[in-house]
Amino acid sequence: MKRVMVVGCPGAGKSTFSKHLGRVLNKEVYHLDQLFWLPGWVMREREEFISLQQEVMNQDSWIIDGNFGATLPVRLEKADTVIWLDLPREVCLYRILKRYAMNRNRTRPDMGEGCEEKLDWEFMKYVWNFNQDKRPKLKERLHKASPQKAIHILRSTKESDHFLKNVQIIQHGSTL
């Protein structure tokens, strides 16, 4: 696991999982939201966003969390491992509501600087409809990925915790 991408619905726990995996593997974690969003929720120019991702992907090892479907194929090509947090939408929706309550009027560490936590109806609909609208395309892209790629689909917090524990044992011979 040298180049790892973590994908899934907002609220699935991509950033938290990535931070834990980064500690276990002693690898730098990059959050696409930090690369994409400028202060005040201003979108970075597409070319600059792609360039920043390319800089990260040119490194020997990395963990990148986030979806951003337009640039997913490039990350998928460079990654040797994909972890898909494929949790139920009710769990994801609950988590974004909880995240909002816990981070209101603050910027999360995995978010672009100057982007205070926000929640709106459009985002909630996006999360609710993710499995219907985005999941099929993500599944198709992963299915078409090179057979040399390790693809792990984790469908619950318990599976995610178990995966991290196993990686910890393999890496260090001990548990978290």
List its traits:
176 residues; alpha/beta; Rossmann fold; 5-stranded parallel beta sheet; two-stranded antiparallel ribbon; 15% strand
Overview of this protein structure:
With 176 residues, this protein is an alpha/beta fold. It has one domain (3-172): Rossmann fold (3-Layer(aba) Sandwich). 51% of the residues lie in helices and 15% in strands. The protein contains 8 helices and 7 strands. Strands 2-5-1-6-7 form a 5-stranded parallel sheet, with helices on both faces. Helix 1 (14-25) runs parallel beside helix 8 and helix 5 runs antiparallel to helix 6. The protein is globular. The two termini are 18 Å apart.
- Rg, nearest Å: 16 Å
| SS-derived structural category | alpha/beta
Major beta sheet summary: 5 strands, parallel
Q: Assign the CATH topology.
A: Rossmann fold
Stretches where pLDDT is under 50 for at least 5 consecutive residues are none
In DSSP terms (H or I, runs of 4 or more residues), the helix count works out at: 8
> How do the helices and strands follow one another from N- to C-terminus?
EHEHEEHEHEHHHEH
How many angstroms separate the termini?
Answer: 18 Å
How are the strands of the biggest sheet laid out side by side? 2-5-1-6-7
Proportion of residues in helical segments: 40-55%
**What count of domains describes the coordinates?**
1
How big a fraction of the residues is strand? 15-25%
- What is the CATH first-level class name? Alpha Beta
General shape = globular
